[in-house]
Amino acid sequence: GGGMADALSAADEARLAGSGIGSLSTEEGLALLDTSRLLDDALLLPIRVDTEALADTDAEELPPLFRGLVRAPARRTAQEAQPETGTLRERLAGMPEHQRMPALLKLVRTHAAGILGYSGAEEIDLDRPFNEAGFDSLSAMGFRNKLTLVTGLKLPAGMIFDYPNPRALAAHLGEELAPEPDPGSADQDGAGAFAEHEVRELLASIPVARLREAGLLASLLELADAGAVRTAGDGAERVGAEREGGTSSIDTMDSEALINMAIGGAGD
Known about the structure:
Elements: H1 10-18, E1 21-22, H2 26-36, E2 48-49, H3 51-55, H4 64-67, H5 82-93, H6 97-116, H7 130-133, H8 137-151, H9 159-162, H10 166-177, H11 185-192, H12 196-204, H13 208-213, H14 217-223, E3 229-232, E4 235-238, H15 240-243, H16 248-251, H17 255-267
Antiparallel strand pairs: 1-2, 3-4
Helix pairs in contact: 6-8, 6-10, 12-17, 14-17
């Protein structure tokens, strides 16, 4: 047989090539073995190294043994990758919410396919566990390092176990990279979520006594301009008495009349 290389799949060979390590034929390996016998060195490492592929690899992903083989200008560091990270976060922030998850799924699948040596992201099934797709401990580390550089997030060492498939991992990235909410938008969104008739119906369902016990009745009257005369049913009631301590006029009003008074006054 051909030894250990016989157990390598096409994806394994592609992954090795992408890491800067090429394969050796049986003849090349035997020739190197013969050459090594003529040397006095105690330790030799006969491998085919693709320096161009190494130059395209982020410095943090290079094994220490290979870092001296790549010229400094070609190296890339996590710090240098930060502008790309910022662009990713900003790009997600500029997307409609329904487009963010597909973008993150594409990101995860593309880098997973690259690490595993697949021809394209479509070969990575959304729900297939990473360890069934071909990841081992070494490729899992490279995958995590790649996503760390691209996203700027501190991802756990056991990333593919904590988030075992592309869908779960993309969801986690989405949570971590979600745009910061606008501090001033919460109240506006909450207020805009209800139409006026819905607010009227909601308030009308609350007994007047409960509003008074909760200390909210006075606030409603303030909003309604409690000194004004408001129409209630077929007649009119002066509601300023509530502010002065009188309650008979308020207590004789039904819920709808009170709410109409409060909201009507607030809208003036």
